[in-house]
Amino acid sequence: MVFIEGKSASPGISSGRAFIYKQQDLSFETEKINDVQVESKRLHDAFNLASGELLEIKNSLSGDLGEEYGHIFRAQMTMVEDEEFLNEIIEIIEEEKLCAEGSLKTIFDGYSEAFSSLGEDDYNRQRLADLADVYSRILRILLGLPDTNLSGVPAGSIVIAEDLMPSDTALMNRENVKGLITEKGGVTSHVAILSKSLGIPAAVGTAKAVSQTTAGDEVLLDSRNFEKASIWIKPGQAEKLSFTKELKSHEEKTALISEMKGKEAITLDGKKIELSANIGSLEDLENALSFGAKSVGLLRTEFFFLGTKTQPDEEKQFVFYKKAAERLNPGMLVIRTLDIGGDKEVGCFELPKEDNPFLGLRGIRVSIKYHEVFKTQLRAIVRASAFGNIKVMFPMIADVSELIYAKKLISEIYDELKTEGKDFNPDMEIGTMVETPAAVFIADLLTEVGDFISIGTNDLTQYVLCADRINENVSEYYRMFSPALIRAIKSASDAALKNGKWTGVCGELGGVAIAIPLLIGIGIGELSMTGGMLPEAVSIIRNLNYSDCKKAADKVLLMKTEEEIKAFLQANFA
Question: What is the CATH number of the domain that holds 502?
Fold first, then answer.
């Protein structure tokens, strides 16, 4: 028997036979060329063929998989049909006299570096997978190789691979796949998003999973723990017997949870909690609605700016915000303004290179520096507020003056739109993200000026604990249940409640099952998470007593270590 561990990408438990999937060898020798026109035509033809293949895949998708994948391949088709992207590569062919393959790689490497700088838990990092998928498709066509995918996966398979791209899995038979295990990838990778959406257990970051497995081996996968996944390869009789009992228990629990879709999250003693979804596209919104979402607590807007060298105009943003607001109405749509810098770089901004970007120009500071870009986004948001329950919030606030600046700009926009005769909601709520220790300390002042706060636990954790969340050398110090973090959340929430304002949590902690009772007990009134987690959150809340949550929170706030806190929550609420 072989036992390995990885990161839980999608919660669940399953057993099956190993299906080892290996991607094609796309290696090549970069060569200098003489005829630029011939090489440019090769590239044009490859782009056209890639577009045709993507259209064929998109049209062939059906059922649940089609709904989840449609937007992925529409996005990839947009890349392939982007004249600017094509021209960048042709420019390399012309200026450096490189073959099409080498020129394609040069441009891809540049984009890849920008996206790779994002943290593993950053939603926008998934766009690197789309870009890599498009790159591999065009390169394969240039090299004259056939297409491959997972359509031939036999029933009862657990797919094990070094990594998986969207096109690898697009045509797979969902019913035949019992689990996904990859050596690479993070918790917001394509594999994680797909598996969560389709309810398939998945593990990522599983070192040497491929080399330690033979096709057909029996595999047991348990990714129910939010931190780590456990994998048994060729398990013994004792392991199989224990696993069978766990599997039966999980299936019974899952059946009960599925009945919670769309129901209100109210505790047994009558405390109502607002449950919302975190989204980054209209497709994400539709997916969240299918899981019963009635509101959105975090709309990330960085996708407008990533993977492009031109900044999005007001109309493009307005149309998107308007559609999302109308689709949710009367449910709220909380829009976070542009949040770049630190681990987030975008091509349409020339941000300065910094020795310590996490303490540099990021979040609201970027918006203040690029005033016109900020104003364009706010005009789009304010105009869209006429079509639904839109609220706006600002990232990485560390000083009340930053919030005052943003509110003043919104006030100016109100005056402009009145003059222009355009509709808007003059009572749109304005709030702040609490992601810095400074914001925790001044939460009372922020909620005197603003209408709400939403705690981004991912960044707040790294700043409170001085542990870079993408640095493997200090990953053990990035502790989601640190007493310091829990006390910071409590302090910010108390300050907001004292001013009669509501507090939400939109970071990863808000979707962790054992954290939900604690956050409710602390005083959090809104939790925002991935859409697929909502039914379980509803189930958890409907089986809690608010009074018990408050007592539990009081005890946790006196505890000295993360281990003590997690053990207590596991014992009382798991």
Answer: 3.20.20.60
Tens of pLDDT along 86-114?
A: 999 999 999 999 999 999 999 999 888 77
CA distance 530 to 450: 26
CA 507, CA 495: separation in Å to the nearest integer?
19
| 326 in the same domain as 468 | yes
User: Structural domain of residue 503, as residue ranges?
Assistant: 274-573
Residue in 44, 99, 506, 549 annotated catalytic: 506
Give 38: exposed, middle or buried? Use CB within 10 Å, 0-12, 13-18, 19+. exposed
Element (H, E) at 204: strand 202-204
By the 8 A CB rule, do 292 and 534 touch? yes
Chain-centroid distance of CA 470 in Å reads 15
Is residue 516 within 8 Å of residue 267, measured between CB atoms?
Answer: no
| Residue 506 falls in the annotated catalytic set | yes
> For the chain, what is the domain count?
3
CA dihedral 525, 527, 528, 530 (to 10 degrees): -160
Annotated active-site residue 348? The verdict is: no
Looking at 99, 190, 348, 549, which residue is catalytic? 190
Which pLDDT tens digit goes with each residue over 176-192? Answer: 999 999 998 776 566 77
pTM for this model (two decimals): 0.73
Helix (H, G, I), strand (E, B) or coil at 354: coil
| CATH, residue 91 | 1.10.274.10
- Best CA proximity match to 348, nearest among 320, 321, 370: 370
Radius of gyration of the chain (CA): 24
| DSSP conformation letters of 42-66 | HHHHHHHHHHHHHHHHHHH--HHHH
CA 206, CA 227: separation in Å to the nearest integer? 13
Nearest to 296, CA basis, from 337, 335, 339, 338: 335
- Which residues are registered as beta bridge partners of 5? 230
